[in-house]
Specification:
Number of strands: 12
Strand order of the largest sheet: 7-8-9-6-5-4-3-2-1-10-11-12
Largest sheet: 12 strands, mixed
Order of helices and strands: EHEHEHEHHEHEHEEEEEEHHH
Shape: globular
Length: about 350
């Protein structure tokens, strides 16, 4: 499917990606589709589906290799729902053949809603995927299915999580977006779930990236409240960050397995150590989730730009990466694309 010419050794002479604020960029999020088989209330309106085109697998590979040749060490495949994408296993196989500038394998991960994961966990692991993150916004079936608007979804996701763990796609992370009045009653239950299933549950503060423009500050469940509520029922111990650019504040249980992470971009922004850029399913670079401008890398490739020219374009684009987002500030503008169309 893919010719060997798409996989030359990354250029050791290439300068690493650094933005104008001195941040080294080493984490690439790549959306391979904006299609999704769920209609989560905090994400989609439930009306319509994909908007943006998908590239061929070979085209994603060429674009990703450009970033790898500039120092990217982590690649996360996202969507939409990436398990819907035909050719996913082959894409992972080819990515697993790539090497970083240091000669190491890429750190390969995937974010999924888990609905199709039970049958794909072992093939993905065999293809070279390191780990998965599963989006799961409740631990009881009625609440979960009220959020996804898909009957029977809870049992499918739970089976997918267990299959991923058995396949060795670990450390396994479970992402929960909390919305006051929707699923904020799930916090303590999720803490028990983390211990019972020996997984890392990560609560994410709700961000203004929903398709239906539901977001308001009042709906956000902040980090401090989450920590206080879990601490009242289970003994939490804060864990040290593994790297400066880590997005989650991590907590362990002093008397058992499992982990809690809290990603708090609204109340405790971590922009100062951001190490990531995003590539949308139609080949646009987004330097921040809340960027107002997209940069058409694929368009330049389609027009015949050389690899050297494309690398120079990536460098210029990353140099213009925003210092931070401005959620909650006067004049804040939501991005034109919602999360499902940007890539998680």
């Amino acid at each position: 499917m893919v010719t060997a010419s798409l996989h030359p050794t990354p250029l050791s002479t290439a300068a690493r990606l650094t933005d104008s604020h001195g941040r080294v960029i080493h984490d690439l999020r790549v959306s391979i589709t904006d299609r999704c088989n769920y209609k989560c209330v905090y994400c989609r309106t439930g009306e319509g589906g994909e908007i943006y085109p998908e590239l061929a697998i070979e085209e994603y590979l060429r674009l990703i290799l450009l970033f790898v040749s500039l120092g990217i060490t982590k690649v996360r495949l996202t969507g939409g729902e990436p398990l819907l994408r035909r050719g996913l296993i082959e894409l992972v196989q080819e990515l697993a053949r790539m090497r970083t500038l240091a000669g190491d394998p890429l750190d390969l991960a995937l974010t999924t809603n888990g609905h199709l994961l039970e049958s794909l966990a072992r093939p993905l692991k065999a293809a070279g995927l390191d780990r998965v993150t599963v989006s799961m916004d409740a631990v009881d079936a009625p609440t979960f299915e009220r959020i996804t608007r898909v009957p029977g979804s809870f049992s499918k996701v739970l089976s997918g999580i267990r299959a991923a763990r058995e396949a060795g796609l670990t450390p396994l992370k479970i992402n929960c977006v909390l919305l006051r009045g929707f699923n904020d009653d799930q916090v303590e239950a999720f803490a028990h779930f983390a211990r019972q299933e020996d997984v890392a549950v990560r609560f994410i503060e709700f961000m203004p990236l929903d398709e239906g423009r539901l977001w308001s500050p009042e709906i956000v469940v902040p980090l401090k409240e989450i920590v206080a509520r879990i601490s009242s029922v289970l003994p939490l111990v804060e864990l040290p960050a593994r790297e400066a650019s880590e997005t989650a504040r991590r907590y362990g249980f002093s008397d058992g397995p499992g982990e809690i992470g809290i990603i708090a971009p609204v109340t405790q922004a971590f922009c100062g150590a951001c190490s990531r850029v995003r590539l949308t399913s139609d080949g646009k670079i987004r330097t921040c989730l809340f960027s107002q401008i997209e940069h058409d890398l694929y368009g330049r490739m389609r027009e015949g730009e050389s690899d050297a020219g494309l690398r120079a374009y990536i460098h210029r684009t990353v140099q213009g990466k925003e210092a931070r987002h401005h959620i909650g500030e006067p004049g804040f503008l939501k991005p034109s694309r919602s999360m499902v169309h940007i890539g998680g």
